[in-house]
Design a protein that fits this description.
It is an enzyme of class 2 (transferase). Strand 5, helix 6 and strand 6 form a beta-alpha-beta unit. An 8-stranded parallel barrel has the order 1-2-3-4-5-6-7-8, surrounded by 8 helices. A 3-stranded antiparallel beta sheet has the order 9-10-11. It has a 3-stranded antiparallel beta sheet with strand order 12-13-14. About 2% of the residues have low confidence. The protein has 17 helices and 14 strands. With 516 residues, the protein is an alpha/beta fold. Helix content is 40%, strand content 19%.
Length: 516
């Protein structure tokens, strides 16, 4: 196929996705996701916003130094300090890109930037030239392009391309566009801008009206050849266009769209589960492509049709995105080699032999409690093991909960607090409430509980429970995760994990302007 028929996949899970309240990730977590994206053969990984915080800078830098097969990108406002910081973070990248942006809609220019259109064009040109002096690959975005005037977009984009931008992004920043209108706008820009042939046109659609994927595909039909998206559609507000939906729509409807991507689709499910586990944002069962029910058939008519000929009710195979109909189920008699092999098949990479031994030991403990260990159990087990490698201010030692009819539930627990064992007892309106109150009596965090979510990791009554706890304090939001056969223990682990993140983390600063 011609390179003109290839759609470049630009993943911004680590930047825009992280701007979801509670989705902040550690450097190590970002590296794990970046490596999963590289295995997925994502073309461009937007690793972060280097100037936003020291943590973001270090994450971008670490990813730039580790990833070899994908381009690593850093976002930067159209100001020298941002661009210089991005270039510094990308200095050792095998392939780096600076992504600079400025708002172009009348409402943003007037009320946010307080600049005249001429000033905006001048600053955009200056920023692109500055970025090109530091990096050969420069992308320029017109923030809030979806509400910008087409004449002004033509003017500023032509100037940005002349200044050296080789990718032009037309974001629907607030999710305002409608597919046919958005596609027409992309078509107009490509037709009217004299030097449009010197750049790849990109789109970045938000999902406020549930149209992010539809708008992105309309833009591809109109000639856009880069789509900016995230795993599971993660992102602030209603999220972004979901990578898995964009990629599989292009693959499944090649007859209509006539384009392709380089994505290695069998790795989609593993990436989805990794992002969900790290961020604590569960995937809804009916989510397209990666939801638990995406390939499930309950209707007798559907079941009969699929058994006779899969294509009667399935437009793609489950295996094509990473689902396996014949899973290797591990148990307590499984050996180290089977364990290692299954981790490799799932795309889980451990740092060294010591990490494998530690994970295998945890697997054996779990296998003594649970007869069959499924892929989802392994994902949770490894994620929990890697979380515990980080320094812990609080650590659960033991938990006892008493709950009976007609009496308030009571929780008694032992915690290590900064290495010293402490105990607490508390009553609550329910067993989980009692556990959280007992933990708080020792932690005294005064954080607000914003979310408590429980999901069964696998089917069956012996499934591990996966708990997400979201805490907020002074405007900072963190998600804590915990998994265990005992849902009460999982709840305690999740709350303690959130407290440790609150205790150790550096507050992240995502300027409002970063909402590309």
């Amino acid at each position: 196929m011609s390179s003109k028929d290839r759609v470049i996949i630009f993943d911004t899970t680590l930047r825009d996705g992280e701007q979801s309240p509670g989705a902040s990730m550690t450097k190590e977590e970002k590296l794990r996701i970046a490596k999963a994206l590289e295995r997925l053969r994502v073309d461009v990984i937007e690793a972060g916003f280097a100037i936003a915080s020291p943590g973001d800078f270090e994450s971008v830098k670490a990813i730039a130094e580790s990833i070899k097969d994908s381009t690593v990108c850093s976002l930067a406002r159209a100001v020298d300090a941002d661009i210089e910081r991005a270039a510094e973070a990308l200095a050792n990248a095998n392939s780096g890109r600076i992504h600079t942006f400025i708002a172009t809609s009348p409402i943003h220019m007037q009320y946010k930037l307080r600049m005249q259109p001429d000033q905006v064009v001048e600053q955009a040109v200056r920023a692109v030239k500055k970025a090109r002096s530091l990096c050969a690959d420069v992308e320029f975005s017109c923030e809030d392009a979806g509400r910008s005037e087409v004449d002004f977009l033509c003017r500023i984009i032509e100037a940005a391309i002349d200044a050296g931008a080789r990718t032009i992004n037309i974001p629907d920043t607030v999710g305002y566009a409608i597919p046919h209108q958005y596609g027409e706008m992309i078509g107009q820009l490509l037709a009217r801008i004299p030097n449009a042939d010197k750049a790849v046109f990109s789109v970045h659609c938000h999902n406020d009206l549930g149209l992010a994927v539809a708008n992105s595909l309309a833009a591809v039909v109109a000639g856009a050849r880069q789509v900016e998206c995230t795993i599971n559609g993660l992102g602030e507000r209603a999220g972004n266009a979901a990578l898995e939906e964009i990629v599989m729509a292009i693959k499944t409807r090649h007859d209509l769209l006539g384009v392709h991507t380089n994505i290695d689709t069998p790795h989609i499910l593993a990436a989805s589960r990794l992002v969900s586990g790290i961020t604590g944002f569960p995937v809804q069962p009916n989510k397209a492509i990666v939801g638990a029910n995406a390939f499930a058939h309950e209707s007798g008519i559907h079941q009969d049709g699929v058994l006779k000929h899969r294509e009667t009710y399935e437009i793609m195979s489950a295996q094509s995105v990473g689902w396996h109909t014949n899973k290797m189920v591990l148990g307590k008699h499984s050996g180290r080699n089977a364990f290692r092999t299954r981790l490799e098949e799932l795309g889980i990479q451990l740092a060294d032999e010591a990490a494998l031994n530690a994970a295998f030991a945890r697997f054996k403990v779990l296998a003594d409690k649970k007869h069959e260990i499924f892929d989802e159990d392994l994902q949770a087990l490894v994620s929990e093991a890697q979380d515990e490698e980080a320094p812990e201010h609080f650590r659960l030692h033991s938990l006892e909960v008493v709950s009976k009819s007609g009496a308030l539930p009571r929780a008694h627990l032992l915690l290590f607090v900064a290495g010293c064992e402490q105990e607490a007892t508390a009553e609550g309106s329910g067993p989980v409430d009692a556990i959280f109150k007992a933990i708080e009596s020792l932690a005294a965090s005064r954080a607000n509980l914003q979310l408590y979510s429980v999901n069964a990791i696998t089917e069956g009554s012996d499934s591990q429970g996966e708990v997400t706890v979201r805490l907020e304090k002074s405007g900072r939001i963190v998600n804590g995760n915990g998994a265990d056969i005992d849902i009460l223990v999982a709840s305690a682990k999740a709350y303690i994990n959130a407290l440790n993140l609150m205790q150790a983390g550096v507050p992240k600063a995502h300027p409002q302007a970063a909402d590309v």
